[in-house]
Each structure stands twice: as structure tokens, then as C-alpha cells.
Specification:
alpha+beta, Calcium-transporting ATPase, cytoplasmic transduction domain A, Rossmann fold, 4 domains, 21 helices
Length: 734
């Protein structure tokens, strides 16, 4: 009561102090024995366009049109950005010029070469051209001196100026006007992409309320500090409506928390004393006292933000292809345009003797100008990175964090899906179901106590279940010495002077202990125990299959995944029972870490041979959560870690992190990835196809500059609009 009164009094008169102090950031790495795992039982584009699209996380494309164009602040180095108002005004003048062209005004102005109608048209078109084309031409000239000869600004400038020289005023303006409209659409798409990432970034709380006991009067003090200044093990207060700033365990209070920002799960979760809560979650009801278990920089939310912000460091083969393609494609087409402009005119001149500009060369120069307009691969270099950015963002909002577009593509091409068992397909909520003591000198409680004390410093779910079962059964003083973890086998320790072994059959074999198989309970994990070189008995620990595990396997097969495989250190019988319930294609049991890696290598070789036969690019994904899964996660085409249960080593090695411990998220991720790839292929094939047709028509003289402009700007706009479907989908599925 005294404590509560103190707390209430303090809540009425909060003394908030802003502290700034040094803190040590220590990482304490404890390598625990992993039972299944330790095994009980037997993860610029360059098209010379220099816009840095600063898309926050993903796009990262640097396309360089002759104007150093930065979408982060969208600033041009040379000349001010064309505002929407000026663009609209230029469009009005353009329309006015077209209307004037079709008027029946035949009035001539004395002393002028052109009629009133012609003069008005020239004024309207030229003023409009200056408004929309000035910055592009200035930057093209600037980049010309920087060596960016074949960037888009240069191509557009040459084409439009050439059209003016040829008297095609209307088309000259159209080139620049529609190009600027395309820029606006591109800016909108990139801003939308960046805003999607900023929405995630806003989840980071600015302050944490730190609870401290005053050394002077022993009163409780609440101090608002930066989350970065909160040390591990500190107590923080989170009020209703506030976002949890740091990962921790609830020490006082109960509430419902909203984890949708982290996991995509919209249903609030009830939490109470002892429950772990993640940063970024929203406290919806009562006041919570939370003891921090991590530093702010290592908490779940920070991990999400870091992953999303750095997601484009790994470019996909598609992106890399476009970058290389643009560097080769544009010079080739420009060379072709030069040939179209010169060679036919010379040939006609030699054969007919007609060397006049109007009758011979002008028509071919005009066709060459159309070539230049069509040649720029904007639609590709803009849309493909933007598509992957949209896919990564959509996954992030579903609680699926992907470290780069390379892995998003790999996920979409999944043909073999490999899973760890414990904590991945099963809940990892182990319960001691049976205790079989075989030594008459030892009771079941004593056997449980020996195993529990041996496993005391392990954080594996199996160890946790032993400690839970042993709780309050034996309160004797325990002297624990010489604890030795034996990788993938178990633990050896001196407990109260007795040498105790606790682990799987491989551990027993290593120390030449004759053990008994558990004939009665083959569906659980068996922990064998030996004391002073003599077999003492075994403990049966049961696990449950996750609710959505069966749905996950069925969903993968429906998506065309050809093989589903489970790898486990557990005994063969237990593994087969789980595999049968889930309808897995293959199961491998009683594996060490190196065994898992070897099997994945074999599966990868098998897949490579199949890819060679079919001509397709199928991939292998692996999902796990333990320390010993790290090598396999790193080897897979896409390694997937269960984020909330997974070890730090697994999360660091993984390419994809599932924030919610639901394997069904993998199916969702594959669907998003395939939707992304479909949009990429649509833009790739559509853009190249349309451009190719228009280039041919231009060379044959069938098309005009309007069609050429559509082949560049129009196709780019269509590609960008196609990309925006991903962002709309991401917002709708939040």
C-alpha cells in the first residue's frame, strides 16, 4: 500500500527531468545449447539521368537525366524546378497555340513575314517551350561538359531543338511538355514510395519514461529520456496510448497491446506480468512497467527500420540487367539515329543528284529525331527499382522484413522450401509429459532436478520446459561447476559434485553410456540423463505443431513449390509424426549443424540441375530460428528467420525476417514477391515492345513525333502507374 501511495502521489506531481548522459552499449553474447539444435532426441540505375530518388529505402535509383535531380529535396542544380503552376501555364499556352492553328484568321501584319495567326502560334509555342524546356536544355549543356553526352536531357534537347529548326513548333513543345509531365508522375511515385517508408520510421518513439528510485529520499522519480540513453535492465513506464520504446518484460500491470505495425496482425494481444513486449507496439489500456532486455538500438523496432532503410543495398539481377542494358542500349540507338539522319540522304543524293535540304535530308533528320526521343529507356530504369521498392514496402507492412530486392526476387521464385522443426513448424512450448527413472537409487523428481540443474544456463525452449516443470519441487542449494556445451548433443556439468550428462542419444554414445529407448512415447523429444557414468533415465518433452503450419505447407504446394523438407535434430520417430501431420515431402532427423548444411547443399545441387533442364530459375529457401541454423540460413538463396523467437545469430544471418511467429507469413511474402515480379516483367516486356515497334515505324517514316513522345514519356507514365499498384496494395493490406 505504501508503494502504491507513493506511486499515486508521484503520478499527480510528475517530476520530469531531461537527462543526457553517457551510456555503455554492451553486447553480451551467450551461446546457449540448442536442443533440437543441441538436439535432444535423437537469412543506379543508371540510365544517365542523375536523379537520386532518395526513396528512403528502396529505390535508390540514380537515373541521370542531365539535371542533377534529387528527389529527396527534388532540387535541380542548374535552374529552379518547374512548379506545377508553371507547367499548367505552359500547357495552357500550348493548347492556345493548337487552337489558334485551326482558326480561320487570314489577317496579315504589314512588315512581318508571318500572318497574325502564324505569329500568335509561334509566340504561344515558343513561350511554352521556354517555360518547360529551359531547365532541361541548361542542364543538358552543363552535363555535356561533364561527359554525360547521351543522357535523357541531351536527347530531349536535341530532338526538340531539331523539331524547332524543322518548323515543327507544336511537336517541339510537346516533347518538352510531356517530358515534364512524366517527371511529375515520376516524382509522385517516388514521393509515394518515400512516404511509405516514412510511415514506418514514424513508429520510433522520441522519449522513454525512465523509473528510478531517488538515493536521497527513496522516492520514485520518472524522467523522460531518449530511448538511446536507457540501459539494459532499467525500468520504463508506458502509459495508455503510448508506443513501447524498447523491448522488455512486463514487471507490473496488464493491458492489451497493438502489434500491427510490427507483425501486420490487427487483433490486440493481452499481456501481463512476465510477458515479453516489443518496441513499436502500442499500449492500449493500463499503465505498464517494463524491464528492458535490450538496448534501444537492438530492439525490434530499430531492427525493422535498419532493415527497411538498407533494403536496396542488394540489387536484383533484374535491376543490374537494366543498369547494364541502359548503358549499352542508348548509345546503340543514338548511333542508329545518326545513321538514319545521314546515310539515306547521302545515298539519295548520289543516286538522284538532289542534294537539297528540304527535299532530301530534312525528312531523314526528322526521323532520326524521333529515334532519339524513343531511345531513352526511362520506363525501365525508373519502374523496375520502384517496383521492388513497392514490394519490399508491402512486405514490411505485413511484418515480413526483407533485406534487399535480391531476396524478394528469390522468394518469388521458390521451388524448394526447407524448414527447421522446433520453434519454426512447432510452437516450441515444450512441456514435460513423462519422466522415466531407470535407476532404483533415483526418484523421478531427482532425475528432473539433475536435468534441470544441468540445463540451468540454457535459454532453449526445452531447457525452459525443464525449469518450469521443476519449479517449487526442489529448493536445495545447487553447486554447478564445469558446464560444457557439446554442440548438437547436449550438456555436461558437475552438479553438487556429481558428473551429469543431459542430452540426446549421440551424447550418450560419445561417453559410452548404455541407454534405454523410450518405447512408450515416440512422439516427443527425449532428454537422456546419466549420472557419474551410469544411465539414470530419460524425460519425455512434448511440443505442439503451430496452428498455421499445415496451412503453410498446403499454401506453398498450391503456389507451385515442388518440394517441402523438414530438418531436425530430434529423433526419427518424432520427426516423422510431425512430417506426416503436415504432409511434408521429406524429413531428415537426428541432424547436427553440419548435417543440415550438407543436406541443403545437396538439395541446392538438385535444384540447379532441375533449373538447367527446365530453363527456369527456381530457388531454395530455408526457415529456422536457432543459433545452429545460421550457416544454413546464410547458404540458402533466401534464409528466413522467425524474428521474435529467433536467436540473434539466426536473425543476423537471415535475408528475410518474419516478425510474427507464423510460418504462413512465408506464403504471403511469396504472393507479394510474385506480384512484384509480374509488374516488373510487364513493364520490361511492355516498354521494350512498344519502343521497338515505334523505332521501326519511325525509321520507315510511318510514325510522327507525337507517337515518338508517347514511346518515351507515355510508356514511362504507364510503367510508373503500374508500379503504383504495389503501393496501393501495401496501403490496403496494412
Amino acid at each position: 500500500m505504501e508503494h502504491e501511495n507513493t506511486k499515486n502521489e508521484h503520478n499527480e506531481h510528475l517530476e520530469l527531468k531531461q537527462e543526457c548522459g553517457c551510456h555503455e552499449h554492451k553486447h553480451e553474447h551467450h551461446e546457449h545449447c540448442e536442443h533440437e539444435k543441441h538436439s535432444h532426441g535423437s537469412e543506379n540505375h543508371g540510365h544517365h539521368h542523375h536523379h537520386d530518388h532518395g526513396c528512403g529505402c528502396c529505390c535508390g535509383h540514380n537515373h541521370g537525366h542531365g539535371h542533377e535531380h534529387n528527389h529527396e529535396g527534388h532540387s535541380h542544380e542548374h535552374g529552379k524546378e518547374l512548379t506545377t503552376g508553371r507547367l499548367i501555364f505552359a500547357a495552357i499556352l500550348f493548347v492556345a497555340g493548337i487552337i489558334t492553328e485551326h482558326l480561320t484568321i487570314n489577317y496579315s501584319i504589314p512588315g512581318l513575314k508571318y500572318s497574325l495567326k502564324e505569329t500568335l502560334c509561334i509566340i504561344f509555342f515558343c513561350v511554352s517551350f521556354i517555360i518547360v524546356g529551359k531547365n532541361i536544355i541548361i542542364n543538358a549543356i552543363y552535363n555535356l561538359f561533364k561527359g554525360h553526352l547521351l543522357d535523357e536531357g541531351f536527347l530531349m534537347s536535341i530532338s526538340s531543338i531539331g523539331a524547332l529548326i524543322l518548323g515543327k513548333y507544336e511537336e517541339a513543345v510537346a516533347i518538352m511538355l510531356l517530358y515534364q509531365v512524366g517527371e511529375k508522375f515520376e516524382d509522385y511515385a517516388v514521393d509515394k514510395s518515400r512516404n511509405s517508408i516514412e510511415e514506418i520510421s514514424k513508429l520510433r518513439p522520441d522519449v522513454a519514461t525512465l523509473k528510478q528510485i531517488s538515493s536521497e529520499n527513496e522516492k520514485i522519480e520518472l524522467t523522460e529520456v531518449s530511448p538511446d540513453d536507457v540501459k539494459t535492465g532499467s525500468i520504463i513506464i508506458v502509459k495508455p496510448g503510448e508506443r513501447i520504446p524498447i523491448d522488455g518484460i512486463i514487471t507490473d500491470g496488464e493491458s492489451f497491446i497493438d502489434t500491427s505495425a510490427l507483425t501486420g496482425e490487427s487483433i490486440p494481444q493481452k499481456v501481463r506480468v512476465g510477458d515479453e513486449v516489443l518496441s513499436g507496439s502500442i499500449n492500449m489500456q493500463g499503465v505498464l512497467e517494463i524491464q528492458t532486455t535490450k538496448h534501444a538500438q537492438d530492439s525490434a523496432l530499430s531492427r525493422i527500420l535498419d532493415l527497411v532503410e538498407n533494403a536496396t543495398e542488394n540489387k536484383t539481377k533484374s535491376e543490374q540487367f537494366v543498369t547494364r542494358f541502359a548503358k549499352v542500349y542508348t548509345p546503340i540507338v543514338v548511333s542508329a539515329a545518326a545513321i538514319v539522319a545521314v546515310i539515306p540522304g547521302i545515298f539519295i543524293g548520289l543516286t538522284s543528284g538532289d542534294w537539297s535540304w528540304n527535299n532530301n535530308f530534312s525528312i531523314w533528320v526528322y526521323r532520326a529525331l524521333m529515334f532519339l526521343v524513343v531511345s531513352c529507356p526511362c520506363a525501365l530504369v525508373i519502374s523496375i527499382p520502384l517496383s521492388f521498392c513497392g514490394g519490399i514496402t508491402a512486405c514490411a507492412k505485413k511484418g515480413i522484413l526483407i533485406k534487399g530486392s535480391t531476396y524478394l526476387e528469390a522468394l518469388g521464385n521458390t521451388k524448394i522450401a526447407v524448414f527447421d522443426k522446433t520453434g519454426t513448424l512447432t510452437k516450441g512450448n515444450f512441456v514435460v509429459s513423462h519422466i522415466h527413472a531407470t535407476d532404483d537409487a533415483i526418484t523421478e523428481d531427482e532425475l528432473l532436478a539433475l536435468a534441470t540443474h544441468t540445463e540451468m544456463f540454457s535459454s532453449h525452449p526445452i531447457s525452459t520446459s525443464l525449469k518450469y516443470a521443476h519449479h517449487d519441487k526442489c529448493c536445495d542449494e545447487v553447486k554447478l561447476e564445469n558446464v560444457e556445451e557439446i554442440t548438437s548433443k547436449g550438456i555436461k556439468a558437475i552438479v553438487n559434485g556429481k558428473e551429469v550428462l543431459a542430452g540426446n542419444t549421440k551424447l550418450m554414445n560419445q561417453f559410452n553410456i548404455e541407454y534405454n529407448e523410450c518405447a512408450e512415447h515416440q512422439d516427443g523429444t527425449i532428454v537422456h540423463v546419466a549420472c557419474n557414468g551410469k544411465y539414470a533415465g530419460h524425460i519425455v518433452i512434448s511440443d505442439e505443431i503451430k496452428d498455421d503450419a499445415e496451412q503453410t505447407i498446403a499454401g506453398l504446394k498450391k503456389l507451385g513449390v515442388s518440394k517441402t523438407v523438414m530438418l531436425t535434430g530430434d529423433n526419427q520417430r518424432s520427426a516423422e509424426i510431425v512430417a506426416s501431420k503436415l504432409s511434408l515431402d521429406k524429413v531428415y532427423a537426428q541432424l547436427l549443424s553440419e548435417d543440415k548444411l550438407r543436406i541443403v547443399e545437396e538439395l541446392h545441387d538438385e535444384l540447379a540441375q532441375n533449373n538447367k533442364k527446365t530453363g527456369k530459375k527456381g530457388t531454395l529457401i530455408f526457415t529456422g530460428d536457432g543459433i545452429n541454423d545460421a550457416p544454413v540460413l546464410a547458404r540458402a538463396d533466401a534464409g528466413i528467420a522467425m524474428g521474435t523467437m529467433g536467436s540473434d545469430a539466426a536473425v543476423e544471418s537471415a535475408d528475410i525476417i518474419i516478425m510474427e511467429d507464423k510460418p504462413s507469413k512465408i506464403v504471403e511474402g511469396i504472393k507479394i514477391s510474385r506480384r512484384t515480379l509480374r509488374i516488373v516483367y510487364e513493364n520490361l516486356i511492355g516498354s521494350l515492345g512498344i519502343k521497338g515497334i515505334i523505332l521501326i515505324l519511325s525509321a520507315l517514316g510511318i510514325s510522327n513525333m507525337w507517337l515518338a513522345v508517347f514511346g518515351d514519356v507515355g510508356v514511362t507514365i504507364l510503367a510508373v502507374l503500374n508500379c503504383l499498384r504495389l503501393f496501393s496494395k501495401a496501403r490496403g493490406e496494412k
